[in-house]
Design goal:
binds adenine; eight-stranded parallel beta sheet; 319 residues; TIM Barrel; alpha/beta; binds zinc ion; single chain; globular
Length: 319
C-alpha cells in the first residue's frame, strides 16, 4: 500500500497523457503535428522550462469542451488514487484556454464536474487553484480573476506559473491584493529557474503562504533560515527538476539537504504526463536516488498534509 499523501503541485493540463491527447484530438477534429503517441513521446526531451512550455501549450489545443476537462481530471484522479493520494490541490491555467476561445466557465465547470465526485469515486478530497500566466500581462491576470468571479465557490486560491525569468512576482502585486480581498489563498512558483530573490518577493509582495518549487532558495542561507523559521512550505517536484534541467540528476537533487536544513518540503509531480511519473513515482525515485529512510518518507507525507489548505480535522481524516 502506498503511503497516504497530499499532492499540492499538480497542473491538470500537465496530466494530459499522449493517448488521451490523441483521443480528444480525434473527437474534436484537431490535427496534432505528430504521427502517433510514440512520435509525441519522442518530443518529450526538454532543454529547459520554456522548451517544455511550448509543447504543453501546443497540446492543450485538444481540450475544447467541458467533458474534455472532466475526462482529463478523472484520468488524473484515478492514477493519483492508485499512488496513495488522498488530497489534491490542483492548478489550472485559464488564460491558456480563454486565449483559444474556450470560456473560463467551460474549464471550471468541466473540472468541477470531476472534482464533485472525486471523494466518492476515488477517495480524494480536492481544491482548485487558478494560476496566472506570469509571461502574460498584469492586466490579463486581473481580467482573468474578474472573469472567474461567478465561479469563486469552486476556487480555493490563486497561483503563478509559466516562464519565470524576467517575470518577477511583483508584476502581479495588484491581482494578488484583489485575490486576498476575495478571501482566496495565495501560492506562487518561485525559485525554479528564477533567483532566490523571487522567492522573497513572492512572500513579501504577494503574501503567498506556500512556494512552488523554491529550490533556488538554497543559494541564500538567510532566506533558508527564514523559510524554516516561518515554516513556509515548498512544493518540490523532483522528476520535473531533472527533466527541465534545473538539476542534473535525481541523485544531485537538494531535497535531502533541504529537509536537513529544517525546511517544510513536500514531493509532487508538477506535470506527470510529461516528466515520467506521478507523485508516488516521485517518492520512489527520491527514495532510491537519495537513499531516504522510511521515516523520512513518512515525514514527507506528513508535511504534505500540514502544507495543504485542509483544516486540521480534515487533514487528520485524509491521512
Ligand atoms: N506550468 C506547468 N508546469 C510548470 C512549471 N514547472 N513551471 C512553471 N510553469 C509551469
Ligand atoms: Zn509547476
Amino acid at each position: 500500500m502506498p503511503v497516504p499523501k497530499a499532492e499540492l503541485h499538480l497542473h491538470i493540463e500537465g496530466t494530459l497523457e499522449p493517448e488521451l491527447a490523441f483521443a480528444l484530438a480525434a473527437r474534436n477534429g484537431v490535427t496534432l503535428p505528430y504521427a502517433d503517441t510514440d512520435a509525441l513521446r519522442e518530443a518529450y526531451r526538454f532543454s529547459d522550462l520554456q522548451s517544455f512550455l511550448d509543447l504543453y501549450y501546443e497540446l492543450m489545443a485538444v481540450l475544447r469542451t467541458a467533458e474534455d476537462f472532466t475526462e482529463l481530471a478523472d484520468a488524473y484522479l484515478e492514477r493519483a488514487a492508485a499512488q496513495g493520494v488522498r488530497h489534491a490541490e490542483i492548478f489550472f491555467d485559464p488564460q491558456a484556454h480563454t486565449a483559444r476561445g474556450i470560456p473560463i466557465g467551460v474549464v471550471i465547470e468541466g473540472l468541477g464536474a470531476s472534482l464533485d465526485r472525486a471523494e466518492e469515486r476515488y477517495g480524494i478530497s480536492t481544491r482548485l487553484i487558478l494560476c496566472f500566466l506570469r509571461d502574460e500581462s498584469a492586466e490579463s491576470a486581473l481580467a482573468t480573476l474578474e472573469a472567474a468571479k461567478p465561479y469563486l465557490h469552486r476556487i480555493t486560491g490563486v497561483g503563478l506559473d509559466s516562464a519565470e525569468v524576467g517575470h518577477p512576482p511583483a508584476k502581479f502585486r495588484e491581482v494578488y491584493e484583489e485575490a486576498a480581498r476575495l478571501g482566496l489563498r495565495r501560492v506562487a512558483h518561485a525559485g525554479e529557474e528564477g533567483p532566490a530573490a523571487y522567492v522573497r518577493e513572492a512572500l513579501d509582495v504577494l503574501g503567498v503562504e506556500r512556494i512552488d518549487h523554491g529550490l533556488r532558495c538554497m543559494e541564500d542561507p538567510s532566506l533558508v533560515d527564514r523559510l524554516a523559521r516561518e515554516r513556509v512550505p515548498l512544493t518540490l517536484c523532483p522528476f520535473s527538476n531533472v527533466r527541465l534541467r534545473v538539476v542534473d540528476t535525481l541523485a544531485e537533487h537538494p531535497l535531502r539537504t533541504m529537509m536537513s536544513a529544517g525546511l517544510l518540503v513536500t514531493v509532487n509531480s508538477d506535470d506527470p504526463a510529461y516528466f515520467g511519473g506521478y507523485v508516488g513515482d516521485n517518492f520512489d525515485g527520491v527514495r532510491d536516488a537519495l537513499g531516504l529512510t522510511e521515516d523520512q518518507l513518512r515525514e514527507l507525507a506528513r508535511n504534505s498534509f500540514e502544507a495543504s489548505f485542509l483544516e486540521d480535522d480534515e487533514a487528520r481524516r485524509a491521512r
